[in-house]
Amino acid sequence: MTERFSADWLALRAPADRRARNPAVADAAAAWAAGLGRAPTVVDLGCGSGANLDCLAPVLPVGQVWHLVDHDRDLLDRAVARAGDQPAVSVATPVATDLSAALPLDLIGAADLVTAAALLDLVSAAWLDRLLSACRAAGTAVCFVLTVDGTVTWWPPDPDDETVAAAVRRHQACDKGFGPALGGDAVARLRRATEGWARAVAGASPWRLGAADAALQTALIDGYAVAAAEVIAEGDPADLLAIRTVDAWAVRRRRAIAAGHGGLTVGHCDVFACPSFAIP
Ligand SMILES: C[S@@+](CC[C@H](N)C(=O)[O-])C[C@H]1O[C@@H](n2cnc3c(N)ncnc32)[C@H](O)[C@@H]1O
Description:
alpha/beta; Rossmann fold; 10 helices; binds S-adenosylmethionine
């Protein structure tokens, strides 16, 4: 079963994503692109409604060509429309494809840069390894941002935060269409795989959500409660105590937001890596 994301959810998270992106990683991508001596060709995997292009395009040279790839045609259309607002960018024919079925190896082989935002935690270890092998073989740089690292810290603390977090981590590791998902392990696997590349820069990009992010916090609490309940139901649907624990946790968390004193940090990591100095 493939994973669907609503345009509303992507719009809700976009401001937090933009704030969270690691500036040192963006600088590394910009410096690499400036050294290319020409405008880069970029492939955006799981582009959604185009938030990644919005943030990355302004640091890349004018004339860049983007190949937008997603299995959701509605999101792809939105991404193409949004790219029209970026003067430095031209968009090649968008690619509507299920990335779990096959990597777009022709695009990757011809690209200067492969990028993805908030995608790698959904994929399997084998899929990520295949993607990185293809990029390395082609000499294609990568910029993978906003990959969750599995850490969540709430304030004020609640006695059941860790119970819910553990269930959410188990849910993140369930199949999202690519086989068993990497979830919070994606960051470590990506960093290990790119360690030996000519250049690799990693930096934290946590969401820091406070009172001004009440809507996103509420959506996260709702999503975490549903995910935890699904994991509990898979293990023991009759475990009413666990289900009540999660429900009560969500009620307390929503109350804290309503009172204006709830917040959380969700750990993410950004990575830019280039396999070879020689290319180009
Ligand atoms: C969390 S969203 C991130 C979207 C966008 N990169 C952003 O930062 O807003 C993950 C994206 O991956 C896409 N996706 C998930 N599974 C996919 C698959 N099997 N093939 C192609 N795209 C997929 C979704 O449609 C969605 O747009």
